[in-house]
Design a protein that fits this description.
With about 300 residues, this protein is an alpha/beta fold. Helix content is about 20%, strand content about 20%. It is built from six helices and 16 strands. The strands form six sheets. It has a six-stranded mixed β-sheet, with helices on both faces. Strands 2-10 form a two-stranded antiparallel ribbon. The protein is globular, with a radius of gyration of 19 Å.
């Protein structure tokens, strides 16, 4: 059963915020009641979690430039604890280390094989089953590998933009798969926010993408979201809240949060590169900078950001 990186939580939170603001504005002082927010708890459903060493085998479906591929490859390399020594904090590796708090130990991810499918072997309109089948052919599927499929901006995938930005789930022969699409040409306001103005909500100026590519920097956000879900809820019986068919997972439970003070429509206070004006909250290898979403911390029952 695949788990989707959905679009709806951010919009729901936004409209709830508007409702609360309206109620506060219209209520008399005597009717205003301070309600303490309850801690968010992701329940553990007694299923397996991914721990140990795993390689990430990529399929690049469609046309990507070498610079686009290097953004994702450097992000994957930066997940390793050994990469932390090559960058000043806050680091990508520190962000990923939160997943090790979920149970039985850390999942160490390394970059494996990469396959380029620039001929669009299955066409430019794909179904979910085709994505899963493609993932099953990524490199040599093994129990210690996770297949990652990234589709280019001119490829339409079932449900993409209308209800999801990507998905993760089980796939035969490996530890699972993750799929994410480049949304730059189809729905950047939905799947590449906050680097593009959203379709709904406050139309504040978008942040400058840290690697100068709205689509691929958005891909990194969604890859981070789904990789965390693939490790902490690999087969629908791990950590999540709500129905198993539409779960809130390690990162989707914290939708839209990137820095302190975040609220629906505002990503929070993040770091800014003085030379480029780009926004980021994590450093990686080779001088890379990334903007990574908040992750739920099971020790504190809070959504935690790096800055």
């Amino acid at each position: 059963m695949a788990t989707f990186c959905t679009l709806t939580p951010l919009l729901t939170l936004y409209f709830l915020l508007l409702l609360l603001m309206f109620q506060s504005a219209t209520a008399s002082p005597r009717k205003l009641i301070l309600v303490q927010q309850q801690p968010l708890v992701l329940q553990y459903h007694n299923g397996p979690l991914l721990t140990g060493n795993f390689s990430l085998n990529l399929i690049w479906y469609g046309r990507f430039s070498p610079s686009q591929r290097s953004i994702v490859a450097d992000f994957f390399r930066s997940l390793s604890p050994s990469s932390a020594g090559f960058a000043a904090p806050p680091t990508v590796a520190t962000w990923w280390a939160t997943t090790s708090l979920y149970g039985h130990g850390p999942a160490h991810l390394t970059l494996g094989s990469q396959i380029l499918d620039e001929s669009y072997s299955l066409g430019n309109q794909l179904t979910s089953s085709q994505i899963t089948a493609m993932a099953g052919r990524a490199g040599r599927p093994r129990a210690d590998s996770i297949s990652v499929v990234i589709t280019s901006s001119d490829v339409a995938v079932e449900g993409f933009c209308s209800s999801r930005c990507g998905a993760h789930g089980p796939v035969a022969g490996s530890a699972g798969y993750v799929w994410v699409g480049d949304s730059s040409a189809q729905c950047p306001g939905q799947c590449a926010w906050p680097f593009h103005q959203p379709i709904y909500g406050p139309q504040t100026p978008p942040l400058v993408a840290p690697n100068g590519d709205v689509g691929m920097d958005g891909v990194v956000i969604n890859l981070a979201t789904l990789l965390a879900g693939a490790v902490t809820n690999p087969n629908g019986r791990g950590y999540f809240q709500g129905p198993a068919t539409a779960p809130l997972e390690a990162v989707t439970a914290c939708t839209g949060m990137f820095g302190t003070g975040a609220y629906p429509g505002y990503p929070g206070k993040v770091l800014v590169d003085p030379s480029s004006g780009a926004s980021y909250n994590a450093r990686g290898m080779d001088g890379r900078k990334f903007l990574l979403p908040a992750m739920w911390n099971p020790k504190t029952s809070q959504c935690t950001t790096l800055v």
